[in-house]
Amino acid sequence: MKYSPGIISVLPLFYIGWSDSVLSPSEMKSIQDKIKGMDFLSYDDQYTLISWTDQKNPPSEETFKSWLDAIKSQSAQMKVSDKISLVDLGLQMAKTSSGAKNEIWDAPKVRKSIEELEAALGVSHQLSKLSFYQSISPEAEHEIEEEKAFDPRAMQSLLDGPYAPLKEKAKKLIMDSFFDISKEVRDKEEMRNLVLDQVKALARQGYGAYAYPEEYGGANSPGGNTAIFETLAMGNISLLIKFGVQFGLFGGAIFQLGTKKHHDKYLKDTGTLELAGCFAMTETGHGSNVRDLETTAVYNPDDKTITVHSPTVAAGKEYIGNALHSKMAVVFAQLMVNNKNQGIHAVLVPLRDEKHETLPGITVKDNGYKMGLNGVDNGRIWFDNVTVPLENLLDKYGGIDENGNYQSSIKKESKRFFTMLGALVGGRVSLALASNTAAKKSLDIAIRYSLKRRQFSNLNEDQETLILDYPTHQWRLFPLMAKSYGLTFATETLREKFAGAYGGSEEMREVETLAAGLKSYASWHATDTIQECREACGGKGYLAENEFADLKADTDIFTTFEGDNHVLLQLVAKALLTDLKQEFNDGGFMAVARHVLQRMSSSVLTLNPVNTRNTNAEHLLSIDFMQSAMTFRSQKLLFSLSDRMRSFIGKKLAPPEIFLRTQTHMVSLAKAWVEAFIFEEFVKKLNSLPESKEKEALRIMLQIFSLHAIYEDKGWFLENDFISGDKSKAIRKVLNKLMRQVRPQAHLYVEAFGIPEVLRKAKIATFAE
Amino acid sequence: MKYSPGIISVLPLFYIGWSDSVLSPSEMKSIQDKIKGMDFLSYDDQYTLISWTDQKNPPSEETFKSWLDAIKSQSAQMKVSDKISLVDLGLQMAKTSSGAKNEIWDAPKVRKSIEELEAALGVSHQLSKLSFYQSISPEAEHEIEEEKAFDPRAMQSLLDGPYAPLKEKAKKLIMDSFFDISKEVRDKEEMRNLVLDQVKALARQGYGAYAYPEEYGGANSPGGNTAIFETLAMGNISLLIKFGVQFGLFGGAIFQLGTKKHHDKYLKDTGTLELAGCFAMTETGHGSNVRDLETTAVYNPDDKTITVHSPTVAAGKEYIGNALHSKMAVVFAQLMVNNKNQGIHAVLVPLRDEKHETLPGITVKDNGYKMGLNGVDNGRIWFDNVTVPLENLLDKYGGIDENGNYQSSIKKESKRFFTMLGALVGGRVSLALASNTAAKKSLDIAIRYSLKRRQFSNLNEDQETLILDYPTHQWRLFPLMAKSYGLTFATETLREKFAGAYGGSEEMREVETLAAGLKSYASWHATDTIQECREACGGKGYLAENEFADLKADTDIFTTFEGDNHVLLQLVAKALLTDLKQEFNDGGFMAVARHVLQRMSSSVLTLNPVNTRNTNAEHLLSIDFMQSAMTFRSQKLLFSLSDRMRSFIGKKLAPPEIFLRTQTHMVSLAKAWVEAFIFEEFVKKLNSLPESKEKEALRIMLQIFSLHAIYEDKGWFLENDFISGDKSKAIRKVLNKLMRQVRPQAHLYVEAFGIPEVLRKAKIATFAE
After folding, report:
1. Which is nearest to B554 in space by CA: B191, B159, B170?
2. Which secondary structure element, helix H or strand E, spans residue A337, and what is its range?
3. Is B562 assigned a catalytic role?
4. What's the pTM?
5. How many A-B residue pairs are in contact by the CB < 8 A criterion?
6. Which site from A538, B137, B315, B641 is most exposed, i.e. has the minimal number of CB atoms within 10 Å?
């Protein structure tokens, strides 16, 4: 593509203006007017330029590349000084390409109109002071091999997966300034009211009911619902959580634990937020241990009602989101029928009248300020003998029949309990996804900043060094970025399995284990990543305007709610032990033999001294090596845990004592297992792709993810003779090389997260200082 | 000691009332009135009880123990039910000890008056519902061996060290409700004004000037000043930081970089906050790299003035604490004399007039909301050719003489720069100390909560398990507690060396290296500990009322300010390399030989296969083993770094390139060296003590600190063949045992931190739910 000098004169502006795929819609008109006023351009040129300003139909990747090529070839012919502005660059290039008759490019009028365009495009204050190489090609310092640069949009579509269009739609919506809350808003009442209005706006657009059946205003898409949730995490996290409480927890409980009569009566109004509700499970005295909640729901056969009661102060429902705005609560309580406790059930209890006054017997207390999420109204709720009709019992898994007898399709209380809880797994799936979004957003900010921020003159006499060129900085950020890549594919698989098993199929148990494991892994990943990114941006990272403050404060509770991570990981380990036991039980002697054989062969294969000491880079970078490490670790931890437990049983230790003695082991096993799962999904994704630059770029992420995971846990691998000390050192060296490979494309890797600037917001990632 | 039934009836109340060594002074009168109204008590008994209510002269340890003994012996004789209240317990015990004539203890009047006393003591709503064993002897479940229980007050005096009285004084002061800021205050202007008043109050009491000479209102005690700072960290961290900015940074710069004329003119008013000032060093464009600041200070020989100027937007002073309240700034700028740049110097520049309006040429912009510290007014400051008299140049290390020529006692610019910066090392010393205080406060809250919070019935049919009885919980909290213990002794040594070298002696270099290392280590320790404690307290930890929110948000920047931790650790490594080089240079051939010999002998000693594989618990718990590990690691990292650098030099790599290639290595070395230093100071402290229960308890902390540090870095130790895989596993087992030893005394270990309840505040650490 050969461009005219006129077009060339503004190419740098367009390249930068579009470089983050966002052109402000409100400024479009003004940009077009400016172009029409540039009378040194031919009509054709004006037309072409205007065609490039349509946000709905942005320039194709090809066009974009043609700009870059034109800029590169033009600028190669001239001496580009270090500190040239975009306008000067354009003018110089136009002049060069004009040949002899080039005085026009010196005319003050021309310069002025290009400067005005620059202002309209909103790039002037950002970039005019930055040098061409720094802003247009951050990779210039470490020369990127052109043929290796991948297309961030193609990569984004790999990451976005099947729900890409829905995600784009949700993103567009929350980009509206209506969803922007100023950092100056600190008062919780003000924040809560703003967020309430925002949730209403989402509900009006049909986002609230997305998981519900169509007859209740929904799209019958639990997977889509999680995609919306995942995307909302790019914006205000208070909004995300209030959205989740209303539609996922409250509505989800009605949908999953209730029956048609409940759906007909409540689901539609829940999805539109006509009926604001909360999910009253946790009590002050019982958080993780839901089964021993103290609240009672006593069936009164005389008038076919249920009396809900908090027997002690500690039986109050604690930390209930939406508690102050709700009209109704789903209350989890011990259901007593004919003096017999049938275990935990959920009952719908109205909380407030139309005037929003609490009903008799209901006490609600504000939880006050929290570390974050101050736009969510958390409170404590007590019930003093509140009586509701029997029909308010959500009776999908257990109800009371005509004769006042308890009936359930699941006879065993413990199985019923876990089935009910399992039906609510969507919250954990959603949180795993949203955690990763928050991590990506911080990485996006920190990496962009590290490509602008310079400190100390080391490599270059004229300019200080970009902080991303420091190996310590790369080691801090790239492994976290690789984890976010891996988690993306693993959580996509989880979403798929969840959507497939929705409504309670046999596969649900697998989904529960995966959700527990990935929620824990992803929420810790978010906590670690936001912290590291904050520190990596120094004092600037501490300012509210740069987003980490809210990201950190708002997501910090993700490691606790929807199940404390330590407790969840123990559930994962228990499930793995059960599976192992099942395998033994099913297979009898042969299974045991297989087990032993498997252990033998794995040790023969992996503990082969040649392999243990193989420090060859090709071997270390091979999927085979990583696979063997991941499998060996989770298998060995599982077998040794099972062996230890058997030996304790042999010694007649009581089960609770055995549990305590193996608790840390269980947590290690669960972590290793989750990491192996992420690895496997990453490999599957990679293998499913045709050869491309994006595939190569993904392979590097997979290698960093896996080798860094092994290196981080090298203590265990060395302790268990899986690798030798020399091999561990060789892994470090290979990782160093991988970091250097990522460095020139770092901006592309975060660009592919697809977080629009208007949501990323942080000034350090946007404006030059 | 034998007590009368009357006294026995209220002993449980007194025991609990005093159990955290705090009785509210304002309630003392009301308690005494209640006692006087208890007419079933003899006059002697009333007198005794009243003597126990004096907060200034609290019951002795002996008295306290006599109460416990009386309670234990009385309650042993009767069946104490699980959920007895303190009043019932007292009444029952009194009844039992009264013998036959015991009807009085059933009288409603008596019960009522004891209940009123309970309320006056402020223990009723906290503890009446908790069982006797749970509240009075949290160690009951894991029976503590009586003779092992140490005295937390004796331990506290070991931790508090030489400045204990000053610390107590400062603590008492900030316990006043004047220093308490409600969590409802969210507006930064409101917070800033409150904090400003509080700093004034501290100044009035002489705390501000503490480090300055007596003639300027001070106590001439830089060590005392850091002890005050360390103690203030128990309260509002915004107050701490504003205090530090005014008296440490602004006043410290005048004192350390100025000469008598500056001291006479400004120091007194600075110490009283008559003159509010700020420390304008960091610029937007230059944080870590102070030497390349852009602000200029040009000497004008004609009128003997200096013109201070910010040449670019990025040259603006960034993130300056006190910027909005200050009348004056110490501005760091490139001093230009006769067109020659003499490097960074500090100049006093007035910012505002008496009406608090900014002076001509001064622009100040609020930094807005931050993650935390919103009670501190941070801002950006620009200077537009602001001219001040020459005498405003702080000229201790470099000034301009009569003839307009630059003069300095330190000829080399780089040496002068580092000397000036070194004079300001007090900030890092203070921050290392305050970081540890913040960590201790979170541990105190989390451990107290974990001794009240129960979840899941595992060990006991009747009661759920205390969460501190879970091994995962112990592994999460105890190693952090042990680090806080170790850091206490190491930072005390740092303080001592700092106070000794104050004013610029030759030992200052050692102090700088230590301060850089310990500030980094301690601030990361605070970040990690607060995070872990927040998570360990679950959802409760997320509520603002439980303190972690502020602790986290306010201290998060400690890893960045007063020098980014990564940058500081590289300084540490450089200093170690310089020392090593110096040793070579000084000693010539013999030094090299010694070096080689030392390496040989250390490898002979430590890499001896017998030792590498020695998994004997006694060996692992020995100071010798820990010492060899700590020394081996930091020595080996130092020698290998030095070897690598030499080899790169041999390959003719440019120094900046060598720096980049060894950067992660430098950081590892510095961390290892700091940890070894902490270990050594811990050992020295232990060895200095006579045998006692406290010494035994400290030994366990030392063992956990060291073995956990080794275990955490087992990857390195295995990689370097210092330990075998079996030995690493054995260390884990020994650590498990140590955790179990700590468990029954956990509350004593945190009690010894000496943080009064009124400062600890968190409701979860105080009230029963």
Report:
1. B191
2. strand A328-337
3. yes
4. 0.81
5. 205
6. B137
